[in-house]
Structure prediction request, 134 residues.
Amino acid sequence: MPALTQERVRELFDYDPETGFLIWKHRILSHGRISTKGGDVATCKGPSGYIYVGIDRKVYRAHRVIWLWWHGYLPENQIDHINKNRSDNKISNLREVSCQCNNGNIFNPRHSTSVVKGVTWKSNPKSWAAPKFR
Prediction:
């Protein structure tokens, strides 16, 4: 199967940078029946909170398809949602980052006792602890 291109993505979808939605341009047939029509939002939300889209029998994370639609390439690095909302695919909310940077852009867990990421209070012995990096 050929690699996904900007030309193919723009043939299938319009993109609204204000909402972050991919919109089907044409009717799409599935097994001889119309499964969607032009103007429909082309995505669905997965259990992880990311938005997904199916193209030519393959499923992609929508933010990567949007990046391709907008910039013309699929990045080797990761796409980060700046506001940490995985379903907000406005182009202004997306940026290309390293894996290390993307992993650092996470919320502190609700049960965290520290404002510093990864640092927690251990009750026995009573002290602060941080993960050990190798």
